[in-house]
Amino acid sequence: MANIVTGIGTSHVPSVGAVIDNNKEQDPYWKPLFDGYQPARDWIQDNMPDVAIVVYNDHASAFGLNLIPTFTLGVAEEFPPADEGYGPRKVPTAVGDPDLAWHLAESLILDEFDMTIANEMSVDHGCTVPLSIMFDKPEQWPCKIIPLCVNVIQYPPPTGKRCFDLGKAIRKAVEAYDKDIKVAIFGTGGMSHQLQGERAGLVNAEFDQSFLDRLTTDPVGLTKIPHVEYMREAGSEGIELVMWLIMRGAMGDEATETYKFYHVPASNTGAGLIVLEDGSQK
Amino acid sequence: MNREYRDIPGTYVMDGQHCRKGYHLNMFCMSLNKAENRDEFRKDEAAYLEKFKLTDEQKKAVLERDWLGMLRLGGNIYYTFKLAIFDGRSMQFVGGAMSDVTEEEFRQMMIAGGRPVEGNRSKKEQEQSNG
User: Fold this and answer.
1) Which residues, in sequence order, are CB contacts of A114 under 8 Å at separation 6+?
2) Mean pLDDT, rounded, for B18-23
3) ipTM of the complex
4) Pairwise CA distance, residues B49 & B36, whole Å
């Protein structure tokens, strides 16, 4: 039987990808962020999953406004990095796991989560930056990747509760998969930030730190945060945090916190990182 | 439908109404994902814009790089930022342009912890405190 053993929550700030690509991690501006990432990078080397489900949002790269699916599961053999306007990032093409991905798609739809299925999809910084944060610069990503893309750009995104429930359904589906593999799930985006308008630059460290704490102590409470509260308190783009709740739902009731880190600023963003483990496996 | 978010100051929420208004503007921006389109836009910006059904106001905002104007005309930052990428501009530059400070001032604000949420939560609250 397969198990979800690891949950990672992380921001997916594009400039963090650029810093890694250009070897600028030791610049004074970026060093504190990368020092904070290091323990999680070390930890995952000793706890490598076979497959990572990466929950993220596309930023007008693979999806435009012509078609706006709420949840899209990538079932392809591989997912090339997208050209977001600078040319594609020079990172490995993510190798998929079509067998598990199709199992997930079928299980989730029959479990009443109406997933969109993507047989061809490029992945932008939303997916590749979290991989770089955890795995640095390998020739190939060290595990298979299943992208799960969530609409958070067109209002309304799915509610926090819907995301949490989807996570729970993912856990159930993974546990019903017949291969004996270890699965990690990444919830990415956020934390507090606002990129747009006269209020651009908003960061709310108090909100972010409370969110990080409550991921282990009060996840159900987090599912009750309405969209307007994310936008008001954590900035209009802080609403990306609903994606962390898919990860959290997939970690089950027994999740324990292994590592947590928070830093302001990464570009225009409050940057958080959390590592959760499945306590029921211990 | 509850539109409580319209009370948040300096924020242009991409709801259905906003999407309808800015659809072609945003899709023009997204077209810059393709290298051949970037080349064509670089050659003659105004001519390239004719391929999209933008209003005259939207065209003017694009040509003048009126970052806030584009949002008011239906733009969404994830899309309009494609134009900033085309220009080689950073998110701090665009953030500064939209909030009326220089890129450096914006960068310093971020280093100091970002724009505080205190006083920036609600238009109603701001009006009350301004008497």
Assistant:
1) A71
2) 98
3) 0.96
4) 14
